[in-house]
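Title: Comparing notes on inverse folding

I've been comparing how different people in this forum approach sequence design from structure. To keep things fair, I'm posting one structure and asking everyone to reply with a full sequence. Here's the target:
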């Protein structure tokens, strides 16, 4: 798997005012890598994620996946939304099966993959319940394995734990890590949480509020499972916090672009 973000720029225009959210962004993502985009609100990290997914078009530059230009959504790119985006009228089972049906996978393969994913996510016995009948943690696991169901080359996650309270967050981070270790799908995740970035990631790219400029590209080499109280963990917290301090640089034309779309 080869994912390349090549010279990507994105400018929004409204009422004659232009706002460049991303300017000449470049990095590659390795196969089976868990990469996190970290940065302050408004730095363009979610915009970049949706561009990688093919939901938005670049102003200039390219997203290249396995030698092919990505210009629209495709089955090789799975997406997990912040609010889970589960279909409320579908059971857990049908939510997970949805992408497989879209890909016209045989019923036998669907049932085999479903059983595998229910076991992986510890949702066996819950498959006939509806989203309104399950906990936030179960919704999160359902959304995660639904995104994995079609065996995407890359899973894109937009603040996947942003919809849960702080008390649940660490436990769900452990769930996500466990699921990812078993599957080892390449992941690009967006977060603004330093602890989450360290706990889950192999690599963290820190983006600045100044047009998404990359101010840090840090490999997290602390062995898994990670101890949040260990010296290595705290070393990375200091490193990422230092880079984030650089990231909170206001864009030079911030006043001019006030009210223009950013993400």
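Reply #1:
Here's my take.
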């Amino acid at each position: 798997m080869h994912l390349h973000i090549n010279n990507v720029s994105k400018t929004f225009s409204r009422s004659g005012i232009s706002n460049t959210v991303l300017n000449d962004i470049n990095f590659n993502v390795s196969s089976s890598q868990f990469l996190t985009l970290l940065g302050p609100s408004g730095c363009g990290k979610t915009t970049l994620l949706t561009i990688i997914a093919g939901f938005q078009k670049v102003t200039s530059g390219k997203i290249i996946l396995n030698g092919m230009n990505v210009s629209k959504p495709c089955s090789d790119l799975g997406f997990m939304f912040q609010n889970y985006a589960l279909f409320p009228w579908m059971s857990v089972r049908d939510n997970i099966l949805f992408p497989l049906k879209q890909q016209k996978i045989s019923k036998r393969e669907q049932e085999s993959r479903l059983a595998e994913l229910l076991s992986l996510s510890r949702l066996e016995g819950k498959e006939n319940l509806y989203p309104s009948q399950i906990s936030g943690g179960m919704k999160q696991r359902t959304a995660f394995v639904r995104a994995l169901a079609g065996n995407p080359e890359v899973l894109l996650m937009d603040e996947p734990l942003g919809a849960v309270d702080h008390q649940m967050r660490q436990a769900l981070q452990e769930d996500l890590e466990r699921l990812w270790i078993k599957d080892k799908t390449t992941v690009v995740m967006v977060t603004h949480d330093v602890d989450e970035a360290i706990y889950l990631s192999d690599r963290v790219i820190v983006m600045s509020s100044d047009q998404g400029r990359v101010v840090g590209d840090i490999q997290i080499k602390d062995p898994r499972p990670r101890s949040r109280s260990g010296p290595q963990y705290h070393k990375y917290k200091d490193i990422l916090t230092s880079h984030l301090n650089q990231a909170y640089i206001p864009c030079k034309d911030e006043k001019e672009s006030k009210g223009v779309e950013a993400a």
